[in-house]
């Protein structure tokens, strides 16, 4: 069945390379893959997104009045801007004639206001429970359906009233193609505390392998105070790379180091590494044990830097072809799109 889909993305971060994070990369891939299958997809998101997606920018926050600004309890302006954008969107979606509304954002209003839209609303849960989103999920309403990006994430939400179908994130195994390996390990992702780049640096240093680090630095103070002092001629920050350069970097590495200091809901960097034929060494947190098996990854106990150093050395000996096969069978965008198509058919019926 072909669907007319309203895909709700982030109102704050544009869908363009280099992507601000895994959610934006996933949304870009989802929209592209659905269109390639023949679906009519309208993406609602932030300004300055990739022109090829034809993103409809959400409403901007009007000028806040002097009286409102005098309220000592006024929340941050970015919070108000997101609230206004999603509020206006949900009020306008009723006239869109969509067969499915797919909420791929992290905001609570598309869930809380799902009953205002005539089409069924599917929300993909990309994170563990957060206060505002949990509040919206706890209010039962007809026409609201949930998916989750991993079994781990689904299990966190089920006690709160959601019963998500698990549809793992996927990567384009043509865009993320196998590389030769052999180079020093790579760590990629947002350079923020919960992603554990400092722990990865310490593990690579103890393993004696060196490390190349790639990704955006949204927390400038964290990068300046905790990451930059660790950089050497063997521990290098190579920048925030676009897809093509990042795929070459990951494919050139002997190992991809994934070191979350929180329960990672999925871990798109794991799937990207496997598609490049690069085995993974990581902490056994969140969904990582679901994505990896013994042929393509080695996991250490959460927070165990010495164990991660040993995992880096062991993962370098794994078969790169096995890593690629794992991506093709478990982490492909084709499997992800097929899963969403089945769910769209079910809820539209």
From TrEMBL:
SUPFAM superfamilies from the UniProt entry: UDP-Glycosyltransferase/glycogen phosphorylase
Domain annotation Glycosyl transferase family: ranges: 188-321
Recorded GO MF terms: glycosyltransferase activity
Region annotated Disordered, chain positions: 160-188
Domain of life: Bacteria
InterPro entries membership: Glyco_trans_1, Glyco_trans_4-like_N, Glycosyltransferase_grp1
Domain Glycosyltransferase subfamily 4-like N-terminal: 20-175
Alphabetical keyword list: Glycosyltransferase, Transferase
GO biological process: carbohydrate derivative biosynthetic process
Family matches, as PANTHER family: SULFOQUINOVOSYL TRANSFERASE SQD2
Name of this chain's protein: Glycosyltransferase involved in cell wall bisynthesis
């Amino acid at each position: 069945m072909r669907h007319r889909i309203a895909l709700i993305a982030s109102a704050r971060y544009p869908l363009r390379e280099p992507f601000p994070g895994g959610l934006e990369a996933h949304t870009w891939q989802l929209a592209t893959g659905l269109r390639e299958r023949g679906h009519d997809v309208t993406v609602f998101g932030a300004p300055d997104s990739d022109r090829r997606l034809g993103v409809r920018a959400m409403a901007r926050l009007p000028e806040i009045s002097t009286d409102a600004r005098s309220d000592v309890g006024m929340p941050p302006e970015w919070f108000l801007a997101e609230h206004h954008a999603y509020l206006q969107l949900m009020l306008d979606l009723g006239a869109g004639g969509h067969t499915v509304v797919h909420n791929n954002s992290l905001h609570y209003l598309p869930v809380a206001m799902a009953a205002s839209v005539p089409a069924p609303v599917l929300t993909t849960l990309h994170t563990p429970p957060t206060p505002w989103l949990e509040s919206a999920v706890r209010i039962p309403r007809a026409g609201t359906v949930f998916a989750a990006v991993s079994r781990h994430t689904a299990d966190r939400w089920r006690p709160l009233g959601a019963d998500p179908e698990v549809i793992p994130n996927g990567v384009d195994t043509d865009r993320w193609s196998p590389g030769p390996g052999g180079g020093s390990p790579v760590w990629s992702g947002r350079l923020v505390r919960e992603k554990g780049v400092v722990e990865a640096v310490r593990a690579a240093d103890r393993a004696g392998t060196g490390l190349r680090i790639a990704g955006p630095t949204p927390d400038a103070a964290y990068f300046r105070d905790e990451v930059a002092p660790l950089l050497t001629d063997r521990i290098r920050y190579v920048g925030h790379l676009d897809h093509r350069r990042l795929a070459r970097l990951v494919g050139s590495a002997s190992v991809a180091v994934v070191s979350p200091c929180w329960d990672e809901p999925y871990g798109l960097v794991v799937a990207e590494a496997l598609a490049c034929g690069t085995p993974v060494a990581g902490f056994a947190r969140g969904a990582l044990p679901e994505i990896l098996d013994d042929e393509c990854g080695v996991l250490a106990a959460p927070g165990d830097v010495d164990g991660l150093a040993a995992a880096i050395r062991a993962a370098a000996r794994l078969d790169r072809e096995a890593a690629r096969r794992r991506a093709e069978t478990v982490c492909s965008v084709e499997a992800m799109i097929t899963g969403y198509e089945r769910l769209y058919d079910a809820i539209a019926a």
